[in-house]
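The authors assume throughout that readers already know how a fold can be written as discrete tokens. For illustration, here is how one protein appears when written out as sequence plus structure tokens:
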Amino acid sequence: ETANAPIFGIDVRGHVTEWNLKLAKLSCFSKEEALGKSLVLNFIDERCRELVGHVLFKAMNDEHTSSFELPLVKDGEVKAVVLLNATTRWGQDNEITGVICVGQDITEINRMKEEVAKTADNLARLVDGANAPIFGVDVNGMVTEWNKKAAELVGYSKAETMGQHLVKNFIQPENRKSVEEVLSRALAGLETANYTVSLRGRSGGQYDVLLNATTRRDAKGQIIGVVGVGQDI
């Protein structure tokens, strides 16, 4: 009852038989309000009812399900999201009497993931719409980012450049060795500022860009590529 994890139980009809204090706090439904009610029809987001019903059906047939997300709703609003393990509940005569679910509140974790996703999306829009040529490469020198300004300057669209080798395809031959060296240094964590790069356009023309080559890292700090932010000169 007082466990610091959301716990609920249902009988073979899917009606609530257990509803601890933690779950009451998360769902905004008291134990008295929940007991005897259909779990799926009263407390689960409509979009998830079929999936949750299937998980509970499996548990009723002695098939354990671990780590499934359960959005809890009240008045049409998702109040909390819990990560649950659904386990078959047995009676004294070894008969199945229902399901017991023990979970973890992941509401805040999911909210943070959404915020990160929104931030990443906003950053991607900012990069794409920037009034400066911006490109990125992975550790193999393959293009992973190519914004609208770079496309406008050189004449190659983002779709045409993605996955292509930057130096071999978009750098003037006489500059390829020095650009490779700049990228290699950035991939080793040594960034370069105000470096002149001669990009090769679709028509064969040369476009000089004053570039800052910055090391790109993942969430764990591992180097995953290079981002180049330039100025058309």
Q: What stands out?
A: The longest strand covers residues 77-90. Strands lie at 7-11, 16-19, 65-74, 77-90, 96-105, 134-138, 143-146, 192-200, 206-217, 223-232. The CA atoms of residues 101 and 208 lie 63 Å apart. The mean pLDDT is 82.
